[in-house]
Design a protein that fits this description.
The chain is α+β, with helices and mostly antiparallel strands and 200 residues long. It has 3 helices and 9 strands, in the order H-E-E-H-E-E-E-E-E-E-H-E. A hairpin with a 5-residue loop joins strand 1 and strand 2. The relative contact order is 0.18.
Length: 200
């Protein structure tokens, strides 16, 4: 009888210990890159204000702390692409974090404002969500996503008509515009390159 009581007490203590441990597990914070919030951060955001991609104030909550490093051409100077806080930008940053991107550069020749814009096709293996909106103006340095798997950069102010998902922006400067315009054609390949990395 005495032995049974000790076993019973041991069982109860073990049970309380185990349930206490599992209850504590529920309060652990998630610490993984997949748990970044998608979409605009809305109220309570501490992000720095930034004009909308169309050059007007408001609408977007600004940018997240995330940036990507972009070089126009092999050995080009690094420029920061400030990412908006949305699911499209987060997916691009996540993919670039697994492997730097070296993408060919194309121009919409014949398209209105083609001289101040270029685009980069992303390999189909990368899944990128989008939430396009109607865009009529693009400020210099603004970056958009266009389905399927295409990044569009405006390196000069432009009046446009299209449906794009805002991704982020570069700080507009003479150095930035010059780097984009004077990106050399890669020898033996016949095209220009943009190199995108997460800077880690």
């Amino acid at each position: 009888m005495k032995r049974l009581t000790r076993k019973g007490i041991s069982f109860i203590l073990a049970f309380l210990l185990v349930t206490g441990v599992f209850a504590g597990c529920g309060s652990l914070p998630a610490n993984n890159s997949e748990s970044r919030p998608a979409g605009n951060s809305g109220a309570g955001s501490s992000h720095a204000p930034r004009p909308d991609p169309d050059g007007t104030a408001g609408g977007h909550s600004g940018t997240s702390a995330d940036v990507l490093i972009v070089r126009f051409g092999e050995g080009g100077e690094p420029f920061l692409l400030h990412l908006y806080d949305n699911a499209t930008a987060a997916a691009i940053a996540r993919h670039v974090g697994t492997a730097d991107w070296r993408l060919p550069i194309y121009h919409y020749e014949g398209y209105e404002n083609w001289e101040v814009m270029q685009y980069y096709d992303i390999p189909d293996r990368y899944e990128i969500p989008s939430n396009p909106e109607s865009v009529t103006k693009a400020a210099a340095g603004t970056v958009y996503y266009s389905e399927p798997n295409r990044i569009v950069l405006f390196y000069g102010d432009a009046e446009i008509t299209g449906d794009y998902t805002p991704v982020g922006y570069f700080d507009d400067s003479e150095e930035f515009r010059s780097a984009v315009k004077n990106n050399p054609v890669l020898e033996g390949w016949g095209n220009k390159l943009v190199l995108i990395s997460d800077g880690e």
